[in-house]
Amino acid sequence: MEFLHELLRMIVDVAILFFEFMGVGVIIASGVRGIWNYLHHSALTRLELAKGMAMGLEFKLGSEILRTVVVRDLSEIAIVGAIILLRAALTFLIHWEIKNEKAEVESEQHLREK
Fold it and tell me: Are 101 and 46 a contacting pair, CB within 8 Å?
């Protein structure tokens, strides 16, 4: 039984690292792309940056959810839970920003068409 527990822990640890790296990579890539779009005065800069940040946070949230599988101590569970709540709140706010930015871009495009 101990072998299975250690195997699960190793698999989860590797998956956590993978998701963390993916999240950081997506956030960095969207940040660089955001700078590029900003320098080229793209109207979609904020929208694209917010989408990239939301995707990166989704990966990071996934790693925190996986972390709950291997947590043993109640204080660790509280810390992981707080991190999950914080990241979920950030994701919610970013999705709200994406929704508002999309509406603003669509209204600007609609006004230009008239």
Answer: yes
